Structure formats: C-alpha cells, structure tokens
Amino acid sequence: MTVTATGRLAGLRLAPGSPTPFGATPTAEGVNFAVAAARADRMWLVLMDRADGSVLTELEFPPEHRVGEVFTTHVLGLDPADADYGFRVERAGERGPVLLDPDARLLAGAGEWGSRPAYRSRIATGDFDWGDDRPPRVPTEDLVVYELHVRGFTRSDTSGVAAPGTFAGLAEKIPYLRWLGVNCVELMPVFEFDETDNVHVHPETGVPLLNTWGYSPVGVFAPKANYAHGERPDVELKELVKRLHAAGIEVVLDVVFNHTSEGDHRGPTLSLRGLDESSYYLLDEAGRHHNFSGAGNTLNANHPLVRDWVVRSLRHWVHEYHVDGFRFDLASVLTRGRDGAPLADPPLVAALAADPVLAGTRLIAEAWDAGGLYQVGAFPHYGRWMEWNGRYRDALRAFLVGREGTTGDVATRLVGSPDLYNGRGATASVNFVTCHDGFTLADWSSYDHKHNRLNGEDGRDGENHNISWNGGAEGPTDDPEVLATRARQQRNALLLLLTSCGVPMLLAGDEFGRSQGGNNNAYPHDDPVTWLDWSLVDRNRDLVEFTRACLRFRREHPVLRRAEHPHGESTPDGGYPPVSWHGEQPWQPDWSPGSHLVIAMMHDPNPRGRGLSDRLDTVVVAANSGSEDKEVALPQPPADSTWRVFANTGFARPLDAATTLRDGHVLRLPARSAAVLWAHTPSNEEG
C-alpha cells in the first residue's frame, strides 16, 4: 500500500506489521510500529520533523493490519533519521491529540532545562560499545547504597566538573565515590519527566517553581534528555553506567510506576489516557481517578496490559543500560487491585520477582503509599524483594533525640529488624536515617520544625513528623555548645547506621554536612537548596573522614555484614552468642522505658576472615542517648584478645579515642554519644 506523503517522505509504503515488540522498531526495510489501544476505533501514525516537531504527514493504520487490540504496521522506506513520531486516536468519531508512544525509547522536544517541553517520540537507533562491561555483583551483605539526584549532585559551580548537572558530571565524581567507600549509587528518577510540571511559584520572586526531583514520569523507557551534556542522553547514561561498573559501583534506578505525569482529569493527555485510560489507571465507578499516589492518578499496576508494560520497561533498562536494580517509589501501590484494595498475591510484584531477565537485579520497595497502606516488613517479597526500612529510620531518630521507651526498639533495628524480616535475613532491610524525602542529616540535627515557605505552599507541604532536635537553637547559630551537640548527633547517626546489620543507605552530601535550610520537601528547587555545595568537603573534612572511616571499619569486620540475623543463643562450647546485650554492667541490659543506654556485642564464633584471618571478629556497639554521662563496664573480650576503641563520638576527636577506655574494660560514654570497639587477637607477627 503506497501512502500519501510529500518531500523526503514521498514513496513510503505500508505493509502488515508485527504486533510485537511494542513501540518503533527499525528493520532492514523501514520501521515497524505497534501500540495497544483496546478502545480506539481508528489510529494514525503521525510523523513529525525532527528539528521543530511540525507535522509532516499522518498515516492511518490500515484496519487489516490490526492484530487483536494492537495497531501495527510496517512503514517501508522510512529512515529513522527522517522523522519523529506520535499516535492519534479516534474514538466515537472524535480525534484526539497527538500521543506519545508509551514504549518510546527516546523522547525529543524537551528543550533547555526549565523550558516548557513539546514532547514527541523518537526512534532509537545505534549500538553502544559496552566492551567487557560486567555487573559488579556486590554481595548484598556488603552493599552500601548512596542516594543522589543526578542534576543536584554536580549542578553547583563548587562541584568543579566540566559538565555540571549531567550524567557526565556525575561520572567525573566517581573517584570521590570510590574514595568515600560506597559501592552502589541509587539515582533519583532518570526517566524522562517534565520539570516544569509545578503550579506553584516562589513566594519571594514570583518565578515558577519546578518539579526538580522528577517523580512524575512522562516516558518510562526514555532517559532524561536534560541530563545529557550533548545530544544523546542514551549514550551518556550508558557511558556513566559503564564507568561506574569499572569502578566496582552498582547502579540502582529509582523508578516511579505508581502514577504518571498525566495527573487526574485536570491534567494533560500525553499518552496512556488517550490510548486506554480505564486500563492504565485506577478509576472509581464514576470514572474518577483514585489517588493512592498523592499525585492525582494511580496506575492500575495489576492489569495485564500495565503489568506487561512495566516488565518491558525494566527489562529494557537491564538489557540496554546494564543497570543493577530498581528502587520502587511508593511500591505499595503495586499491590493494589482494580478496586484499590491490597492484594495478597499481586501479579506485578510476583512477576518482577520471577522474571528471568531481571534475575540477579535488586528489587527494593518503598513499602508504603500515599493512601495509607504501610507494608514495612509485610510487603509481598517472594524471596526477592528488599525494603526501605522506615521503621529503622524512625527508631534510630527517636532514640538519638532522647525519647523514652525507645531502647528496645532501636536494639532490634541494630541487628537487622528480625521482628520484620524473620526468615528473610538482615539484608532484606535497607537501613537509613535520611533520604531525599525529608531533612538532610545536618537539618535533622538543626531544626525542630520544617521550614518550607519557599516551596510556594505556605508551609503546608512536607512531613510534620520529623523526629528531630535542633540541639538548642532553631537553624543557623554561632553557639559553640549547640554546634558541638549537632556535630555529635550527626556522628552518632552515621556510626550506628554503618555498624547495623542490614544494608546501609546514605543520602548524598550527609557525609559533609549538607543543609537545605530546614526544607524537608525540597522537590521544587533547582537552586542552592538542592545543589550540593562541594566546598563543604573541605570545610567539614572531619565529618567526611569520619564517614569514610566508618565505611572502612564496616568493610573490615564481617560480623557487621552478616546476611542472617544474629541470634542470642550461646554456642555449644559455651562461647559468646552471635549477639549479646549489656548495660552499665555486663550481661545486664536495661530495657525499661526510662533507659537511654543500649550496648550490643556482636561476635562471630566462626570468622570467615576474608583476608583477616588473624582477627577475631567481635564488635561492641554502644550508645547513650541520655543527658547524663555513663561509665560502662564492658564484658570480657574473647580469650587472648583486648578491647580497642574504633570511635567515640563523645570526644572532640572521635577517631582518636583510645583514652576513653579505662583499665582496659571501662568505657566512658558521655551524654548523647555512641562508641564502637573491637576485639583483636594478636597475629604471630605481633607476638
């Protein structure tokens, strides 16, 4: 069938196409197009100028080429470089707007960062030379996750990179990541999103605010075009992954499959709504959108069409971009059925766990949603899923700010939350104190209340339950006592986080005291509020070195990285159990509501060595969140060993705290401090 087209598109012919794969697939003869639209009566392929998006021609999908609910055709003679494309649907006699291909591998028309996009789908072509790239395959128990925002990480001039705010800029910081000691980066959304999608304005300047974080996807197969330094975001993201892998660093993508940028009935019709709204979204009986995402709409994740779309997307990122895993934003949405009720056996969550292409990748759930469904410890895991442990964050914060009745809870969190993950192991728990959503670590120790006025919502947005303490003054201060308290609290949190069982996660910049001025919902800011100030690396060098030392200590002590939860039962020969609890006196823990002291001794009766065969792997983690100093009599170290102090945050030089141990077994633990000790068996060379 010859079609009507002019100019460089003259002479195109339409032949029957293949219903799979979905999207636009170059062939030797042209391009195959396939898109599902169950309720469409007719469909047109719209070809557009790659330079300005103007329509070149519209070609109707021949009805005889349709396969089931899939509109497909093979456009012979079409060079992928000749045109961008979209789809137009007719339903009940009405033709809608040009729609994006939900399977488009690239999206064009984004323009410069901050400008209103005019999106169109682009046909992806070309290969990438992966060379000998291989996934690092870091053992899960050894994983250290570092969460960052691609643009904010290097956008500031202080970053010193040649391509600030881009994939290439992040690649320039790989030596720093290696030096610090992390081995996994979790990238906040890199799917194409519209950063201008925000109705609020800056209250002081009147300038429109942005959606900088990007938790509102436009295309789930396409990388964010504005994160590229040049014209090929796909190539630049692949180059970043390749370089991270060469450095031994895994790449986890933060993915959003709970909603899209189309919003509710007031939002734009970009793609899914125009193709098949009632299949892609959760609607009530009146056709109104359920809003379990807090963003206006909610994906109907367990509909077969949507489930297969999500699986295709993730397979694409694993196969084409070599990513190592995914963190799922508001993952509890993925467990909801058509009526919004949670399913005991959600098909999508099960399919992702069993998918052979995704085997070996990390699946991490943010196990709650905006509709009140909280599944931490109860997310359907199918033996595969890990979870952001929100209860770890809350317990550690509550303990460190001195709340009563928290000692028993924090003790459970320190050993991997066995109450939540019994049978799944400690590595099911991704432990964190801070993340992108909420206070930074510096702000958690500097503010009692959120300060979100500059978000343009009169301070109404953001979490009110921050479990924070300002140390004696709200916000910036020159009071040396307050500053010392804040510094101690930050070190307390880092020390406990990095000596807990489970997988630790750090928020980028916490290691050098990054602040957002008390803003705990900084998503609309593309300015110094969200840009990392790299001058802090030198100004707060002590904190950076402390974090790095904690990460090194974790690597050197396998007892802190056990995959299974340590139990409290003595060994058959009467030796120390894998974990034991103590108080001011050995073997006498105080779990009363008024207690602020927790002391764990973690012991490995069968050291695995890992090159440290001369070290008996026993570590004591102690914390005093009360307002009074304590002196703690430690349990006897294992035979032929002595206690050595790694760190004590109660002293001005926490990594040089040898004097904090009196008589070899009495630990000085000042108010609001934490300490870590280890037992060492001398090697033959030592004596």
From TrEMBL:
Region (Disordered): 455-478
One Pfam family per UniProt: Alpha-amylase
Domain Glycosyl hydrolase family 13 catalytic: start-end pairs: 147-554
Single GO biological process annotation from the record: carbohydrate metabolic process
Family: Belongs to the glycosyl hydrolase 13 family.
CDD domains cross-referenced by the UniProt entry: AmyAc_Glg_debranch (cd11326)
Biased composition (Basic and acidic residues): 455-464
Lineage: Bacteria, Bacillati, Actinomycetota, Actinomycetes, Pseudonocardiales
Protein known as: Glycogen operon protein
